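Input structure tokens:
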């Protein structure tokens, strides 16, 4: 139930962005043009690890931490490389993205919320149409992470780096603290280096 509530609250974010309570599937051009532009740029962007040694240390450490959620070592490394890549590209700490994914989908890349949000970061499918990428698949790890990280970065910038309100915006619960507290708890418990 906890996971479903997170996805439902995430879907409410997009309803709030619409400015009215119409279903997200009917949305087309009512969104912030700056966020739309950033999503389009994000899809076209590519980067990677800058320092191989640092990457190997980080992957080794985080793989042990992720094992409680993902059994298969090969899948863990694939996820971690993709998360690090997309988080870094968006100017986010990869550990923050790991915490968001833990709360949003519990690392189920095929998760679908009642509202239709999809994948690891629970991105609403209408974003694909909004940025003319209807042929993309939100269950693809890179597509989901790229869009989710771009959206989270946008909200962090909107909130001048204030993590609590940015997370609440991401989740569609702006003005409330339950979701940000869950993410920060997961971040401190599982992902920050100790």
């Amino acid at each position: 139930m906890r996971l479903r509530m997170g996805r439902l609250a995430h879907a409410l974010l997009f309803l709030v962005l619409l400015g009215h309570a119409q279903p997200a599937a009917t949305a087309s051009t009512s969104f912030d043009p700056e966020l739309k532009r950033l999503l389009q740029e994000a899809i076209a962007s590519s980067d990677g690890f800058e320092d191989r040694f640092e990457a190997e240390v980080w992957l080794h450490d985080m793989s042990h931490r992720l094992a409680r959620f993902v059994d298969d070592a090969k899948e863990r490394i694939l996820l971690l490389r993709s998360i690090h890549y997309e988080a870094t590209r968006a100017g986010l700490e990869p550990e923050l993205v790991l915490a968001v994914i833990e709360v949003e989908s519990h690392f189920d890349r095929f998760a679908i919320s009642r509202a239709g949000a999809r994948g690891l970061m629970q991105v609403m499918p209408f974003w694909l149409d909004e940025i003319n990428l209807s042929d993309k698949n939100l269950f693809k790890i890179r597509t989901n992470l790229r869009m989710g990280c771009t959206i989270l970065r946008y909200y962090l910038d909107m909130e001048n780096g204030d993590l609590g309100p940015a997370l609440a915006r991401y989740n569609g619960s702006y003005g409330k603290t339950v979701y940000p507290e869950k993410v920060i708890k997961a971040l401190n418990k599982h992902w920050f280096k100790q």
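Residues 19 and 118 are 22 Å apart (CA to CA). The chain is about 60% helix and 0% strand.
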